Predict the 3D structure of the following.
Amino acid sequence: MTENAIELVNITKTFGDVVANDCVNLTVKKGEILALLGENGSGKTTLVNMLSGIYFPDSGEIFVNGERAVIRSPIDAFSYGIGMVHQHLKLVDVFTAAENVVLGLKGGVCIDRKKLAVKIREIAEKYGFEIDPKKKIYDMAISEKQTVEIIKVLYRGANILILDEPTAVLTPQETEKFFDVLRKMKEDGKSIIIITHKLNEVLAISDRVAILRKGRSVGVVETRTATAQSLTEAMVGRSVSLSIERPEVPLTGDRLTVQELNCVDHEGVRVLKDVSFVLHGGEILGVAGVAGSGQRELCEALSGLQPIKSGHIYHNDGDFSEDIVGKSPFDIARMGIRSAFVPEDRLGMGLVAGMSMVDNMMLKNYHESKGLFVDRKKPRMVADELIKRLGIVTPNASTPVRRLSGGNVQKVLLGREINSNPSVLIAAYPVRGLDINSSYMIYDLLNEQKKKGVAVLYVGEDLDVLMQLCDRIIVMCGGAITGVVDPRAVTKEKIGELMMRHENDRSEEVAG
Amino acid sequence: MSDGIRKEPVPQESEAARAQQQEEDIRVREAIKTAELENVREHHRQAKAPLVRMVKRDDISRKKAVVIRLAAVVCALVTGGLLILALGHNPISVYAEMVVGSLGSTTVLQETIRNAIPLLITSMAVSLAFRMRFWNIGAEGQILAGAVAASYVALFLSESLGHVPSLLIMAVVAVVAGGLYGMIPAVFRAKWNTNETLFTLMLNYIALCFVKYLQNGPWRDPALNGFPKIAMFGSEARLPKLFGVNIGWIIALVLVVLVSIYLTRTKQGYEISVVGESSNTARYAGINVTKVMLRTMFISGALAGLVGFIQVSGADFTLSENTTGGVGFTAITVAWMSKLNPPVMLIVAFFIAMLTKGAGRIQTAFKIPASAANVLIGIILFFLLGCEFFINYKLVWRKKQTAGAPPKETAKEAVNNG
C-alpha cells in the first residue's frame, strides 16, 4: 500500500458537456518516473491539475502515500508534498531566483537571504542543478527559469513532482542535462509525473508510461517493453505511420529574398541580427531554434507586422520583384503580393476568436467588396467548402471559432490562408498543440502547397519533424542565423549545437 | 516490433512487476465494486470536500437564462421590500406607486419617455466604443460639449436663422463638437498610449467646469440680476413635440436601427469588432487600428453630442451644469445590461428611466428620502447585474449525506444538481 506515492481511483471531471476525465485510475510508485502520455485534449493536464489543487474532481478518490487526500487548493497540494511545474512558468520577473523560491511562503517579515541562498545551493548541489540565487529572473535564459521553478517546488518539500511539458523550452543538450537531474531525484526517492509529447523522451526517461485517450486511461506499460510505434498506437487507438513524406519537387525560382534584416523591439533590444536567406518556390524551408530566438519576429517582419530597422525583403513572382520593408500588411496586400501567414498565436492574431468561421474567412479581404457593407455570401461559401474539404468539425459555419478544438481552429486558419492562393506561405508552429491526426493533415497540406510550387517557410519546435519534412533548415539563435543545414545529412546534435552557438560565443566574448 | 500496448507487460524479466500490476488492478477493481469504496466516500464527505465550487457553464439554454433573470427580479423585489419595510412602509403599495408614477398616466409616461431618450442614445454612443474595448466613460463631457455648441447657436444665432435652420445647425455643431471632444482621448491613446479610462473621465470635469464658467461669466443672463443662469432659449431653438414628447424619441428610434445596421452589416462595424477582439488580429488583417479608433471615437462622441443637443433644445431649453443629469454614467450600466446590443438597449433604457421616475414619485408620495429611493434602484440593479454570474457559472454544492441510501455519484448527476 505505502509503496504508492499517489493513487487516483475513478477520477471523473467534466466541464459542461465535455468529459475531460472519465473514471481514470492511475498509480505512481515511490521513486519512479511516470510518463503521462496522450494526445491534446485527452485529459492529461486536467488530471494533474486535480492533483495540484487547481481543479476539484467531480467524483473519485485521491490517495497520497496510501492515505485518502482531499486537495482543494494548491496549498493543500503542497501539504501533501505535491508540487507542480507548469508549462507556462509562473515567476516574478523583477525578483531574484531566491525571492521567487520563497514567494508566498509563510515566514517572518524579513527574508534571511544568506540562509536562503545556502539552502537553495544545497538543493541545487544535491540534484545537480546550476543556479545563482541572486540572479534576477529577467536576466535568465528560459532553462534557468525552469530550474528556479523546480527548486521552488523542492524547497517547499515536495516529494511528488508534476512536470507539464518541461522539455518544450529546452535544446536537446539541455534536455539531456535535465534528465540527469530527474534521475538523481528519482534515486532520492522522489516520484515524478512527466507530461510530454515527445516519444523518444518518454522512452529515455520514464519507468512506466500511462496512456490516456479521450479522457480514459487506456493502459499502463513498462517503458522497457514499449516502442515509439506501440505508444503511438495506444495513444491514437489504431495503427499509424509515423513517417512524414518529403516529396521531391522541382524548385520554381526565388520567391522571397531576405537581405541583412535587422529589427529591434520597443526597448531597443536587437531581435533580428543580419538575417539573410532565400526562399524558393517548391520547397519547405524549416526554421529551428529554441523558443524566442527571433522566429516570431522574423515571421512578422516578413508579413509587415514588425518594424524593420534595416535590410530588405524582396517578394519575387516571375518578373515582379518588390521590397516590402516599411510597408503595412494592407500595403503589401494592395501591391498584389500573395503572401499567406499562419501566425503562432492562432486565436489572438490569425483569427478573431469570438467571430464565426464566416466572419473569419473575410478577415483579410473584407475590404475588397464594393460599397459600405460587407458581403458575407462569398465567405460563407468558402467556409462551407473548407468544412467539407478539410473535415472541420463544427456545428456550423456560424459557430464562434473559439468553441472549436485546437486542431479544427488550425484547419480554419490554414485553410483560409491556402484558399487565398498564396505564392509564399509562412507557418509558425502550425502543429503546436495538435493531435497526431491533425498534425499529419497539416503536414500533408503543406506538402500539397509545396507541390503546387508555393514557397513554404515552416517554423517548428520538434526537430524530428523538421528533419523529416523540410528540404532545408535554417537554425536561429539569439535573433541571428547560425547555420543552414541539409536535414538529410545532418544530425540532431549538430542542430542542437547551432541552436546554442550564439550564446556560447557571447559568453566567450565576455570571458575574454 | 509494432505490437500494440498491453495492459500487462509480458516479458519474463518484468514478472514481478507484472504480478504487482495485476494485483493492483484487481484491488482497484474490487475497491470500486465493494463496500470499501462506499466507506471511502462516506469518509470523504465527512472529511472536507469543499462546500461549494464554481464551475463555468459551457452554454446555457435560453429558458434557463430567462428563469435565472426572473429569479433575480424576484430576489431584487424581496430585498427592496425589506428595505421599504424597514422604512415603515408597505412594500406592495410602494412598488405599485412606482409603476403608477412612471407609467400610470399620459403625463408621467411622457416624462418617462423623455428621460429614456438621452439614456438610450448615450448607451449606443458608449457601446460603439466599448465594442472596440475602448473604455469611453466620458459621455458626460461629450454630451456637454455638444450642448455648449448647440447652445451657442441657440443663444446668439437662432433668432436670425429661423426655426428649422437653427435646429439643423444646432444639431450639426453639437455632433461635430461632441465628436471632436471624443476624439481627443483617442488621439492621445494612439500617439502616446495613454489610458483612455482616466482620460475620458478627466475630460468630463473639464467640460463641466467650462459650463459653470459660461454660466457664471460670459453667458450669464443679465435679466436675472446676477443669478448665475443662462437664459432660456427662444422658440426657434426648441425641438417640436410629437405625441407630447419632443421629437428626440423619433431620432432615438431611428438611431437604434442605424447603429444596429452599422455594427453588424457594414465594413466599419466589422472593423470595430475585429479591433475589439484583438488589435493584433486587426493589424494582421491589414486594418489601420489608429484610424478605426479615431473614427469610432468620433462617432461615439458625436452621438453623445447629439444627446446634448436634444437635452438643451428638447428638455431643458437652456444649458446648465445639470444638463446631463448623470446620463453619461447611467448609460454605461444600460450598455452592459444590454450586452452592447442596441435593440435591447431600447428596453433597458426605458426600464431604468421608469425606475428613476418611479423612485422620484415615491419620494413625494411616501416621504421616502431621495437617498433611500436611490438605494432601492441600486438594489434592483445589483441583482439584475449580479445574476449574470449565475448565467456564466454554476455552483456545485457538497453532496448531502443521505443515511442508508447508497450515493450514486455520477458526473452527470453532479452537473444536473448544480
User: Anything to note?
Assistant: Chain B has 17 helices and four strands.
